[in-house]
TrEMBL record, chain A:
The protein, known as: NADH:ubiquinone oxidoreductase subunit 1 (Chain H)
UniProtKB keywords: Membrane, Transmembrane, Transmembrane helix
Secretion signal span: none
Keyword flag Ribosomal protein: no
NCBIfam families according to UniProt: PRK06076.1-1, PRK06076.1-2
GO biological process, one term: aerobic respiration
HAMAP family on file: NDH1_NuoH
GO cellular component, one term: membrane
Amino acid sequence: MEELTIFLVIYGTLLGAFGAAAVLVWFERRLLGFWQDRLGPNRVGPFGIGLALADVIKLLAKEDWVPPFSDRLVFIFAPTAVVITMLLGFAVVPYTEHLFIADLNIGLLFFLGMTSLAVYSVLLGGLGSHNKYALLGGLRSAAQMVSYEVFMGLSLMGVVMISGSFSLVDIVKTQAENGWFVISQFFGFIVFLMAGIAESHRLPFDLPEAEHELVAGFHTEYSGMKFGLFMLGEYLSLILISSMITTIFFGGWLGPSFLPDLVLDFVPPIIWFFAKTGTCICFFILLRAAIPRPRYDQLMSFGWKLLLPLTLVNLLITGAVLLWL
Amino acid sequence: MLKAILSQIISLYRICLHLFAKADTVQYPEEMPYLAPRYRGRIVLTRDPDGNERCVACNLCAVACPVDCIALQKTEDEHGRWYPEFFRINFSRCIMCGMCEEACPTYSIQLTPDFEMCEYDRQNMVYEKEHLLISGQGKYPGYSFYNVAGKAIKDKDKGEALNEAQPIDIKSLLP
């Protein structure tokens, strides 16, 4: 029974993540359309949701071309890396108290490690393409992701200090007693949000791609399903970061405590989790619609001069409060 | 720094409010957008109130055209009135700039709010005079070039046009 549940959760996560990533392609365009006073894609199927399917078919049917000048092995490996690491990251996400693939006692570190490994995808893609724009994109992403990794890890340490565990299930359980960490660890949340956007290189921090200056950045030479994998990886990382923000800062499967107990008992915990994650994804899309992309040096100085001190001060204060209060 | 962050948050809020705004775009083939009468679309040749061609084959439109898509040949009828023998617009070159309309002294060439001119065959984009000529007067009803111009044509001699004085006999000595 136990094994069957795990099996179901694994395949549910796989299918759910792929499906959600495909639907997000349509959902993001539609939402962007609304925010830009357009209608967005609404032709294929009800509300245009068939666009997700049409997009997948298009990507699968396209010629899978490897440029003759590229480093073939690296070129082919690069797009798979991001999808594999992001899917592995989902292993530690607790959907409810009992519904998860693995409750590692180093779950948080596992997640950080997996997102760090995704850098290889962008880096190798840029390097293996033997293309100037791709190389520039890869170069930028290497610097950006390595530096934002630092704050991403550090911003979570306050949470770890309070809950006293790296396990994500324990972190959520701590929030049931102490209230959501978005309040007590507000600056940690801000920094993690920023670093999360930079990690998944979504707009406004999509400098590795930066289509206005670098054609398409690291995936300039990619087409067909290899490009599709990059796209899938981007949406998977968006979902993963959103579910991580939900788990770590917004109480995971817990309902908002100000609601009456009747509502909290009635709504199953998994609904809360998905609702919060969905809201978070919408916020990421809103960021894309509203915020202009910073210059590359602005991005780096923003990270090192503002976010890093902010994290350290946050860490210091959290430590002091825990020690003396 | 704080001001910059605040402005980002304000822009986030304002963009979010656009979720409830009405879309500026329309469902095109089903719902046609409103196009102003002055919209610069497909070019037509119009007629004067009497039903004659307005075009006098002066070639000003062809000269004004920045992409040289207008070609025409002047000819005359038996009364000395000019008209184009052929008038050809290559719409695959035309950029709908409206320079020809501005250059036209007789309001003959006019742009219309029609832009649906797709063709499967490129040659079909070349419009001859019979395709361009419409039966109406277009945007300037009541205007007839020869009724206000000093040129003598059939049934109208010099000095008989609107707002025109009789020609002075410069050979005469009488006051």
